[in-house]
Structure prediction request, 277 residues.
Amino acid sequence: MKKLLCLVLLLQGCASLPDRPATVERMYVISCGENHVKDLARWAPADAGKGAVFLNHCYLIRHAKGWMLWDTGNSDSFAALPNGNSVFGGLLVQFMRKPLAESLKQIGVAPADIQHLAMSHMHGDHCGNANLFASSTLYIQAVEYDAAFGPEPQKYGFMAANYARLRDSRVVKLAGDHDVFGDGSVVIKSAPGHTIGHQVLLVRLAQTGPLVLSGDVVHFAGNWNAKRVPPLNFNADQSALSMQMVEQLMARTGAKLWINHDPEQSKTIPKAPAYVQ
Prediction:
């Protein structure tokens, strides 16, 4: 009798389990700066001599278990620079038209409300406002953490001042993929190559469907279509494998790829304070 009761309880428990991963409630795509590039040679030698404008986006995800922010864009301090922040001897000029802090306020969210923080990688245009979120839990590949918080972050193209306050944050160091909320709705996927511990994000939305947020696994559609690896990447072989992984993930899940910097695709995506579901 006791065994029969246990079996009934087990079957009742199984019946209550979802037959597919839960979806997030909504996601805000926030404009988080622009990078004006004078020469694409570092990103695509085939386009050497051409200029481009890379758009930055931050992604604010509302889940039943809390808020999560993916990437923090260019530094809000650039908003005070009408001519932008010039790097690489003027090859790239960074702008921040509207501070991230203001965009969050318009949505009705304060930095302290965000429990979960993850960035695709620790380059300045993706972690420029990381210090605002020191009270969040940081999810980062262990190798990226060691490079960013080690003795020589500049060796990896990182600026420690962008994220110095995260040194005392709660950190979940990853060694591969991670299901943030435990229901398959928001999954960090290891995708090294652009940096030593680069990662992308799989997000499942009820109406839009599954999305892969690219980080810099690819910078724009032309590189994705041709599967070109930029010369500036940390590891070319890993970069190629990560693009292959993303392609397989898309085929397996039916996900669309949202390329963080691509200006043409950006035109088709609603921006905060609007949201996607």
